[in-house]
Specification:
The chain is of the alpha+beta class. The protein has two domains: 77 residues, Arc Repressor Mutant, subunit A, CATH 1.10.10; 171 residues, Beta-Lactamase (2-Layer Sandwich), CATH 3.30.450.40. The protein has ten helices and eight strands. Strands 5-4-3-8-7-6 form a six-stranded antiparallel β-sheet, sandwiched between helices. Strands 1-2 form a two-stranded antiparallel sheet. A hairpin with a 2-residue loop joins strand 3 and strand 4. Helix 5 crosses helix 10 and helix 6 packs across helix 8. The N and C termini lie far apart (65 Å).
Length: 266
């Protein structure tokens, strides 16, 4: 006796029912991603009601998604009758693994860029308004700018930070910017309005500059790159006395680097 697919409960992917199942699965994944992004962008975490209002989803749908995400440690809930949800440790672990893979891919290109310019090359990411250096290739000059891997700088006061801030959509930019900008040197942008104006220029040129804004005597230029879903910045920090007169050269080298990473050629 032959048994049809329908009788066994197996749905053909090409059938109308199979297409509907695929569409439903895609919608679920999309909603999960929307919830995670909203939680990431909302300072201090997000409640179930806030997420439902922001995403215009039924509260029952948001509740099911939050429950599943919490079970997988992708989010964590604060105490109280109306808990606020924050990004969980599993997301951090996944992000760390992705960053390690990307560093392994990009490092040989950083070595080549350092050899081309003779300068130190930094690779960094953006975390809560701070730039964290995740890889570095030291330059060949005896006098050179070097920051430790793992060190953080305020994003508004350094070239890689401004490159990464300029790459953000407006809603995420506002979350990353502190209400008050720390002034580290006489050259640091002191107001959000001044910083926004500068970021607009960065978006047009693709290049962000630090002219002694983080440390007196050190200047830098940086560019944002996107590799395998990870947004990072590559920057060239240089003692100011050697930076002046070579800004265009360093900037052109970084733009070529970005095109190469993106597969656009050199």
């Amino acid at each position: 006796m032959s048994v049809s697919r329908r009788e066994t409960g197996v749905v053909s992917p090409s059938s109308p029912a199979g297409a509907e199942a695929r569409a439903t699965g895609i919608q679920v994944v999309s909603r999960v991603a929307q919830v995670l992004r909203a939680i990431r962008e909302m300072t201090g975490g997000a409640s179930q009601a806030e997420l439902a209002d922001r995403l215009e989803l039924p509260k029952t749908t948001v509740h099911r998604i939050l429950t599943a995400l919490e079970e997988e440690e992708l989010i964590v809930a604060g105490g109280g009758a109306r808990p606020r949800y924050r990004i969980g440790p599993e997301v951090m672990r996944l992000a760390a693994a992705a960053e390690r893979d990307v560093v392994d891919q990009v490092h040989p290109l950083l070595v080549e860029l350092s050899a081309e310019t003779g300068e130190t090359i930094d690779l960094s990411i953006l975390q809560r308004g701070q730039v964290m250096f995740i890889d570095q290739v030291e330059g060949s000059h005896r006098l050179r700018a070097v920051s430790a891997v793992g060190e953080t700088f305020p994003a508004h006061a350094c070239a890689p930070g401004k490159a990464l801030l300029a790459a953000l959509p407006p809603s995420r930019l506002e979350v990353q910017l502190p209400a008050r900008l720390d002034v580290l040197t006489p050259h640091t942008a002191s107001t959000r309005a001044a910083l926004r104006d500068e970021l607009a220029s960065v978006r047009e040129s693709g290049l962000a500059f630090d002219r002694e804004e983080h440390s007196e005597g050190i200047s830098a230029v940086g560019v944002a790159i996107f590799v395998d879903g990870v947004q990072m910045a590559v920057s060239i920090p240089v003692p100011t006395q050697r930076f002046e007169g070579r800004e265009e050269e360093f900037g052109a080298a970084l733009l070529r680097f970005r095109r190469r990473v993106a597969g656009e050629g050199v």
